[in-house]
Amino acid sequence: MRPYVIMLVVLASGLGLPTFAELITYNSPLPEQNAMARAGFLAEMGIQLSQFRVDFETGFVDAQDISNQPGLFPAGLVIRDTSPDDAAIIKSGPGSISLSNPVGQFAVTFDGGPSDVLELDFSASPVDYVAYQDIDTTSNNSIITLVFSNGSTMNFFSDDTLTFGDSAEFLGFFRNDLPQISKLRLRLSGDLYGIDNIEYGIVPEDVLPGDYNFNGVVDAADYVVWRDQIGGQAGYNRWQRQFGETANADASPSAVGLAIAVPEPACIALVSLGIATVYCRRTSRAKSLASC
Fold this sequence. Notes:
Layout: E1 4-10, E2 22-27, H1 34-45, E3 52-54, E4 78-81, E5 88-92, E6 106-110, E7 118-121, E8 129-135, E9 142-148, E10 153-158, E11 169-174, E12 181-187, E13 193-201, H2 220-230, H3 233-242, E14 269-272, E15 276-280, E16 286-288
């Protein structure tokens, strides 16, 4: 199985979203595909590493309450929850999230009621992308909501993960042409679940979209890299739009490196969603709902 990639193309701008703006989403269908999905996600943005990463491995202890504490995480991130008990708690060790494991030793868990929400709040410093690994999601009708800096929102269903052992699955959102992301909300219908390895940040201005071999020019060689290693309609569109462009002479090392191996797309399907069109390779946990 290959990671799932979708590109949402907004066809109407009545909610403040640019016409034909793209949202890129990468999702691993199985835990063993996490590294592949993450590599594709980073390559899609033209970066080698995320700007910020929270893995809960340093500075956290078992049973620590991390709810609603400004200053605890880099770049203004605040993890909030709407439960009356501030239910975002650090847990550690095998089987500590129902029967599932953190990615490392520690992860944050949430055990709110059916209407409670766990929120990653970036409103102090909105970001271009956010990714994480979710653990032991076992409830139906679970919803992920992206809130953009202009107040518009986009919702996704989240399907089940495995419910024991190493169940974590990668999920990443890149705003691309849309406004920056100010919040990500998880409403998982009262299920006990966890998240780990939160990654987020700003894509550097000196990144040259479509330069998949990082040589400072978008040319035919980048198409070969896309075809053999990256895949996805969104990546092809970016290469096509940027063909012939060159990087600034003073580009920083953030745009320099080796292309990361990512699977070639298996299929491209067009599905109407009212105000959005989705190009996809494989059914996934993250299924788009109408923007609201």
